[in-house]
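Student: I would love a firmer grasp of how sequence relates to backbone shape in proteins. Thank you; the sequence and its tokens follow:
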Amino acid sequence: MISKINKLKFTTQILNDSNEIIKYLYIGTRIPIWPEFHKYILHDLKYFQAKSILLEEDGNPSGNVLIYSDGSDTLYFGYFGVVGDKKNKIIFLLNKLLEYGKQNNFAFIRGPINIPSIIFGFGFMEKDSSENIFVGKPINPPIYQELFLKMGFYTKFKQNSWEGPLLRFNPWKIKKYAYCDYEYFNPRDWDELMELKSEFLRIIGENMPPSAQITPNASELFESWADFVCTYGHFFLFSFVKYKPTGKIIACAVFLPNPFRKDAKGNNDSIVGFSWAIDQKHRRKGLGMLKLGGTILQAREKKIKYGSGIMGSENIANTELSKNYGLSLKRTHLILEYEI
């Protein structure tokens, strides 16, 4: 404990009912919680059997942190926030989070991971990051990570967001690469996407580094997440690459629609590169450019003109791809961990 708290003001209670929990998540995020998002939130809350620690000040809601587990020795948390971003409230609620983790015999506490992360994202945002509302990119003042770090947390993952205008280019015209052995394609409808689900999860699971697989049990959340992508976006936001000589799918990607930014006609005009992977045997052959270019050509036809990519700070290949494409580093988020 790094400070004494006025115990007369603050109390906490544990919320177990998902419909009750959802009422207070707004305290821990600045991304709008639209009623139409409730089905996605409730799906993930119920899957993880999540709980919330609700902070009350003189009987009024004043802070919240979501807690959940995937059955491992790690307690995950999300939506950590207090009204007014006050230091004493943050410390009090953080102590309650640590207390819960210790009492329930967890070995680690990790977060924030705000399920569903495809909408509400993960990590505490570092100072000087862009603060405009964007899907999957939480916003917070730096006092949160400063206090967490003082309390003994350390940085587990550092995620960078590279952003900028979507410049139209045709990857099949890049002379450096020959794609005659590869076929880029997208699912045509929901049934075909579900047929490709197992291949998507296999490639992601086998080829993405731990820093890119942040949400626990993400494979079990696939259908709910896919529904969000297809409802607010398009089927072409899922892409695949097949190796023609064997007929095997060796690369895949998914971009997220950003419903919080619209053009003058009210249409969504931006996307986020969320997950993409290439089989190790087929890397360094320009398939990253093939997936990116193939998707952007279709996005531009739909008047989508701005894009962002989320990647671990240690991911040199994707960082170079983002730089070469002309994107700029706009935001950085920290996923923190505490060893009990």
